[in-house]
Amino acid sequence: MSDSHDARARQNAARLSGTVRVVGAGLLGASIGHALRAKGVDVVLADASPSQLRLAIDYGAGRAAREDDAPRLIVVAVPPDVTADVIEAELAAHPDAVVTDVASVKLEPFDELRRRGIDLTRYIGSHPLAGRERGGAISARADLFIGRPWVVCRDEQTRPADLALVEALALDVGALLLEMTPQEHDRAVALTSHVPQVVASLLAGRLAEADEGSLRLAGQGVRDTTRIAASAPELWVQILGANAAPVVELLDALAGARREVAPALRAPAAPGARRAVADAIRQGNEGVERLPGKHGQNRRFETMVVMVDDTPGQLGRLFGELGELGVNVEDLRLEHSPGAQFGLAEISVAPASLRGAIEGLEERGWRIAGNTND
Amino acid sequence: MSDSHDARARQNAARLSGTVRVVGAGLLGASIGHALRAKGVDVVLADASPSQLRLAIDYGAGRAAREDDAPRLIVVAVPPDVTADVIEAELAAHPDAVVTDVASVKLEPFDELRRRGIDLTRYIGSHPLAGRERGGAISARADLFIGRPWVVCRDEQTRPADLALVEALALDVGALLLEMTPQEHDRAVALTSHVPQVVASLLAGRLAEADEGSLRLAGQGVRDTTRIAASAPELWVQILGANAAPVVELLDALAGARREVAPALRAPAAPGARRAVADAIRQGNEGVERLPGKHGQNRRFETMVVMVDDTPGQLGRLFGELGELGVNVEDLRLEHSPGAQFGLAEISVAPASLRGAIEGLEERGWRIAGNTND
Questions:
Q1: Which pathway does it operate in (chains A, B) (predicted)?
Q2: What residue spans in chain B does CATH classification 1.10.3660.10 cover?
Q3: Under CATH, which architecture does the B2-180 domain have?
Q4: Most A CBs within 10 Å: which of B222, B234, B243, B289, as the mutation test of the A interface?
Q5: Does the beta-carbon distance from A234 to B278 stay under 8 Å?
Q6: CA distance B281 to B284
Q7: What is the pLDDT of residue A2?
Q8: B63-64 and B73-76 strand pairing
């Protein structure tokens, strides 16, 4: 494990040089600090909160600012509400630096700054699609961005040398570069993140109103559908507020789709009703099929379900034996039966591995509760 | 593993005796057959499709019917569309038998039979909450119902001895008995299953219309929210049609919640707008919190994120070492970074185990990418 990571680290010498200034020492800012420092880049940290700043520095995410700092690249990693203000201040305070930000909405800060008449030649918005359930400098990790998409929003004014700096930042922290316009980006995150959040929250809101008995019938489906509804209200108020137009447009499209199917749901015996419902479900099938799978490909795996006792070491034995069988686990989902002392492990493997995995496990005494290739 | 299962099997001697007739040899019917036969119960299978019936018998789910069969219990496990017809036919053909069904909607078949003037004293509806992504007799498993809720809908006419038969069926296949009225049941599954299905399908429908580039920003959130949108249209047309009233009522409640929050999303700077959005997200938080956790309790676990190379045996080593550390894995989610050759394993453990698990894994060279108790 560590060998291959070391080898990868040696291949990836830092593309950035000089000093990078990171404004905002929360989860994203401090994680960028850790990742760049691991590459030997000089990182200066700033934060409106002295205690947050102190914490991030204590944890090794960077150093405090000095009078003579001359950063070439500034990364603004502050809450959405204050992103535009901080970008403006940093552009003014560092007239030779390129400024980027990591906010999850890209058009609003850009438009706001343009409305203020700011020269945005040296500003290049970006958005790393990374995060964790907990925020703050103490949750920061050098590997937060590894393998994650990092969107960079250039425009016609962007100078190639400036763009290269922002791209070097994304590559240095291990992210996968994607180029989009701010409009493309904001519509994409409305679709893949913001609207799913609203939908999950509203659906989970109905669970809040339900009687206790109903909830005992909840299975994995509703759990998955509402998982992200556990997200923090404070952050989402800002995100949704900053990306209101694309979010509302998509919610309207959803409401339209609902209105198309509602009469059919209301009167299932009416002519054409079954077809309308089937069409809606089938279109959902198509949408799910389009989501990129593992390694960015639409690879399909076979799944087998193994019964696992709920005691320490059982999963270890299972995965150890899969390793002995030469079977690579591509994906895994554990499902627990309410009241039962064991779980079901749904294990995805390459189609070519399925038969051997099942036979090998059964020989070793495991109970296979099913597979997708029966 | 096998020791404890054997012990459990010995404790659970069959409660049913005599012959059980199962009508419909698909996934549920054939699984009931397998589970009952494993307890030594005589199972007669019937199916409108001779090839499906032959297959289920070949796989050992039961035997063919004979002239002199005198079943005490009949289980109707046919598609929702024909459930009422088959219940009626079985009640008529077997005047001494108790008839139950396993359809996922309970009020509609009951009302339909009452409209036809059928005496329903010997009919007791039930619904095992179990299923698999693939259907058919070949996907059937004796352990499909173990630890799953099995709802039984008695009414004031139900005779105790008849109820005992249906309860014995549920207990013999290893399910957890729940008693509800048909109305309670149908509202509960509308909330926990049918409406999440509609919402996931409609949301995933927007993905079907999206451009390819947008979908590259899709993360685990939208994947979870839309996972069940991959379900089969044919089945869901029947289920939604049979439970139209509670589904439409909940969809209306959802639309109402959306209309409350929509103006706030549309005009995020308006007075009260932020609070309206925050309230909707917070109510979603509350709903998710109410979903029962593992073992039917609302236990909370701590989660740590471990980096795992994408090669055979790595997960085995990880779980083996967790077993050595005495740490029981309560839940697990594997996340793959697009383009990266490793994954992140989110592992849930009892709060008391977290610190020791992290320290032990780090001593053994694992990279911990975060935990919920920082």
A1: Amino-acid biosynthesis
A2: 186-211+220-256
A3: 3-Layer(aba) Sandwich (3.40)
A4: B222
A5: yes
A6: 5
A7: 43
A8: unpaired
Q: Residues of A with CB below 8 A from B221's CB?
A: 192-193, 196-197, 200, 227-228
User: CA nearest A185 in B: which residue?
Assistant: B214
By CB atoms closer than 10 A (0-12, 13-18, 19+), residue A306 is: buried
Write the pLDDT tens digit of every residue in B46-67. 999 999 999 999 989 999 999 9
Q: What is the ipTM of this complex?
A: 0.76
- Pairwise CA distance, residues B158 & B301, whole Å: 42
Question: Where in the sequence of chain A do the CATH 1.10.3660.10 domains occur?
Answer: 186-290
State the best of A8, A112, A151, A201 to mutate against chain B, taking most chain B CBs within 10 Å.
A201
Domain ranges in chain B with CATH number 3.40.50.720: 2-180
Average pLDDT over residues A97-121: 96
Q: Which two tokens stand for residue A298?
A: 């639409």
CB contact under 8 A, A338 and B147: yes
What does the DSSP 8-state code read for residue B227?
A: G
What backbone phi and psi angles, to 5 degrees, belong to A187? -70, -35
Partner-chain contact A324 B313, CB within 8 Å: yes
CATH 3.30.2130.10-classified regions of chain B:
302-371
Kindly determine whether residue B1 and residue A314, on different chains, have CB atoms separated by under 8 Å.
yes
pLDDT tens digits, residue range B115-172? 999 999 999 999 999 876 667 888 888 888 887 889 999 988 999 999 999 999 999 9
Class of domain B302-371 as given by CATH: alpha beta
| Cα of B235 to nearest chain A Cα, Å | 9
Domain B186-211+220-256 is in which class? mainly alpha
| Window from A162-171, B159-168, B322-331 with minimum mean pLDDT | B322-331
Domain A186-290 has CATH 1.10.760.10: no
Cβ-Cβ pairs closer than 8 A, A with B, add up to: 512
Pairing of strands A331-336, A342-349: antiparallel
Closest CB to B370: pick one of A1, A141, A228.
Answer: A141
Neighbours of B368 (CB within 10 A): 16
Residues 95-114 of chain A whose Cβ lies under 8 A from any Cβ of chain B: none
pLDDT tens digits for range B4-49: 444 444 445 678 989 999 999 999 999 999 999 999 999 999 999 9
Nearest-Cα residue of chain B relative to residue A330: B310
> B373 and B350 in contact (C-beta within 8 Å)?
no
Q: Which residues on chain A are in Cβ contact (under 8 Å) with B327?
A: 312
Partner residue facing B323 (CB), from A268, A312, A338: A312
